[in-house]
Design brief:
This protein is an alpha/beta fold and 319 residues long. Helix content is 50%, strand content 12%. Strands 3-2-1-4-5-6-7-8 form an eight-stranded mixed β-sheet, with helices on both faces. It binds nicotinamide-adenine-dinucleotide. Nicotinamide-adenine-dinucleotide binds next to helix 1, helix 5 and strand 6.
Length: 319
């Protein structure tokens, strides 16, 4: 069925809706824009044209003209949604706003269409409960800007039809996104819970006077974030001990447990959790291949270091 998605409606054309329009139109789909503020579509068109022109310079899209030509502004919501195979809701982040707009979408959503909400952290069950189409509603949470950072979180509500998850994932892959599945609802989903953990600790260290905001930023931009641009925390620690993630946990779980306790939190480095994470990592990469993967990591880091030096990035040195 995802191969049947030809037309996408974007409801709410601010920062995120405009970025989504680029993603879908650049993938060859017809895009119908609607915003409650009539100026919203005008602003979106300007932003889309600018971004496509910049992307074209770097080869991230072809000629912007046919991409822009696939985007149609609509004067009312039903004009956009009524012809859509997929709807991307992108209005502001309150339960009230999302409940109201989803009720409007529900009234004209075609019987076969799926609704994805860009919600950053409010679960779909908070605003789709009373919709007749609620089995076809999911969170489809992007990262800003969605046309440049392709990660997207699919989060089903308890009543979302599980049979639609695979086709939704396939559809998002088809338009160039990298979907992850959050198996069940949790406020903030995965991405913003990870970001929240880091931000909370950054604020705490800053507030308690351990380091300036600028130095904490450097710890991420020139430290942790350098690896994180191409690998996640589990793979990172898998490569940071000779015998992989289990070895890392044996050495450092006590430290992380103490750090969590110092903030009044419970650490989750139980033998069971470490065992399951180890099993997943070893299924992806054997212990024998750790060295090869570490060499790959170092090659990526060398590439990044060379690029920074070549471009003599003014942000790459302390100002
Ligand atoms: N900005 C981010 O970094 C980011 C990242 C990921 C997800 N999100 C989520 O995406 C959603 C949109 O965020 P944004 O940053 O684009 O907000 P925004 O304020 O830039 O845009 C919201 C748009 O929705 C329009 N709108 C409001 N009510 C409407 C209605 N009933 N019908 C149609 N249009 C309506 C507004 O006029 C505005 O143009 C939110 O849920 C937000 O949490 C934001």
């Amino acid at each position: 069925m995802t191969t049947d998605i030809d037309t996408v409606a974007i409801v709410g054309c601010g920062l995120i809706g405009s970025g989504w329009a680029i993603v879908y139109a650049n993938a060859g789909l017809a895009v119908r824009l609607y915003d409650a503020d009539p100026q919203g579509v005008v602003r979106a068109r300007d932003m889309i044209a600018h971004e496509l022109a910049e992307m074209a310079k770097l080869g991230l899209c072809g000629d912007p003209e046919p991409v822009v030509a696939r985007i149609t502004g609509c004067d009312d919501l039903s004009e956009a949604v009524g012809m859509a195979d997929y709807v991307q809701e992108s209005v502001r982040e309150t339960v009230e706003a999302k409940t109201k707009v989803c009720a409007e979408i529900d009234a004209c959503l075609p019987d076969h269409a799926i609704l994805g909400s860009s919600s950053s952290g409010i679960p779909a069950s908070d605003f789709t409960r009373d919709m007749k189409s609620r089995t076809r509603c999911f969170i489809v949470h992007p990262v800003n800007p969605p046309h440049l950072i392709p990660l997207v979180e699919i989060v089903p509500a308890p009543w979302s039809d599980p049979a639609l998850i695979a086709p939704l994932r396939t559809f998002l892959e088809r338009v160039g996104q990298t979907p992850i599945l959050v198996e069940r609802e949790i406020e903030g989903f995965v991405l913003n819970r990870l970001q929240g953990a880091l931000l909370n600790e950054a604020f705490a260290l800053f507030d308690e006077g351990y380091a300036s905001a600028a130095d904490i930023d450097l710890a991420v931009s020139h430290g942790l974030g350098t690896r994180w641009s191409f690998m996640g925390p589990f793979e990172t620690i898998d490569l940071n001990a000779p015998q992989g993630i289990a070895d890392y946990a044996a050495r450092l779980a006590p430290l992380y447990t103490a750090l969590a306790a110092s903030r009044g939190m419970t650490a989750h480095w139980s033998d069971d959790a470490v065992g399951r994470a180890t099993a997943e990592r070893r299924a992806a990469l054997s212990l024998d291949d750790l060295g090869r993967r570490s060499a790959w990591r170092n090659a990526r880091l060398m590439d990044l270091a060379a690029r920074r030096r070549r471009e003599s990035d003014p942000d790459s040195v302390r100002g």
